[in-house]
Specification:
Elements (H helix, E strand, L loop, with lengths): L3 H17 L16 H8 L3 H8 L8 H10 L4 H11 L17 H9 L4 E4 L5 E4 L1 H6 L12 H7 L1 H6 L3 H16 L6 H13 L1 H9 L8 E7 L3 E11 L7 E7 L8
């Protein structure tokens, strides 16, 4: 159930968008701007009383599909639609990215392609949705024969990952704790659940770590790799969230200069 603040914000937003719509048949002078509540209700195939209650901030239960019809009837932009569903506490069933879940947002693709450092994008299931040439060279075996390379599957099941990460056990534990933080946002995505189910069945280390329930934010810091051709490589990891899609991440690895006194 939504709290009072969310209900008030949702109601004010729906009313403002309703009043901003130009009626299909203007007719004579109207005392209220935009669509009447009855007209919006008819457009969306819902009750006018329900529209009134949601605009008044009352506690109304509505499915994601009902909210989708309301969003369509209000002619919302994608940003407005995202805002509506965030206030309503639902995931948009008509999310266009759901039709192509592995497609990286343009901002992430552009930045990844322009960086000279190893950089890649992750979607909600932590599938690598884009990667530049330095990242493909660094992560040995990740992109070999994989149309949809997944970072979790690579770290927990690939022999190349264990050789590449000298502190594999700690890195795998941290990676899983970071993923669990994102997992709460992707519960309604069947691909996310599928990745977890597959790893629970195929990786004892993942299964043990999953049961620990550890949760941490994605943090920067030094990341060490033992590359088969280039030897030890050190990077400082930077992670950024995409502003248009909160379930996508950009990860960039800045080469770290090793100080004279460091091991």
């Amino acid at each position: 159930m939504l709290d009072e603040d969310h209900r008030k914000l949702l109601g004010a937003f729906v009313r403002a968008r309703r009043e901003a719509i130009v009626p299909d048949t203007p007719g004579r002078r109207r005392r209220t701007p935009g669509l009447r509540r009855e007209e919006l209700a008819a457009r969306a195939g819902i009750g006018a009383t329900w529209v009134a209650w949601i605009e008044q901030g009352r506690a109304v239960r509505a499915s994601a599909e009902t909210m989708g019809r309301l969003a369509d009837s209000l002619d919302l932009t994608q940003a407005e639609r995202t805002y509506l569903f965030s206030l309503a506490g639902h995931r948009d069933p008509a999310d266009p990215f759901a039709q192509a879940p592995g497609a990286a947002p343009p901002a992430i693709t552009a930045l990844v392609s322009r960086l000279d450092w190893p950089a890649y994008g992750l979607d909600a299931a932590w599938t690598v949705c884009c990667a530049n040439a330095p990242a493909r060279r660094l992560f040995v075996g990740l992109f070999d024969g994989e149309a949809q390379p997944n970072l979790l599957r690579y770290v927990f099941t690939s022999p190349e990952a264990r050789r590449l990460l000298p502190d594999w056990a700690e890195r795998a534990r941290r990676l899983l704790a970071e993923f669990r933080r994102d997992y709460g946002r992707g519960l309604s995505d069947p691909r996310v659940a599928g990745v977890v189910d597959w790893l629970l069945e195929n990786s004892e280390h993942f299964r043990n770590g999953w049961e620990e329930q550890a949760v941490i934010s994605r943090e920067g810091g030094v990341r060490v790799f033992q590359h088969p051709d280039e030897g030890e490589l050190r990077f400082i990891q930077h992670t950024l969230g995409d502003v248009t899609r909160g379930d996508f991440r950009l990860v960039a690895l800045e080469p770290a200069v090793k100080s004279a006194g460091s091991p």
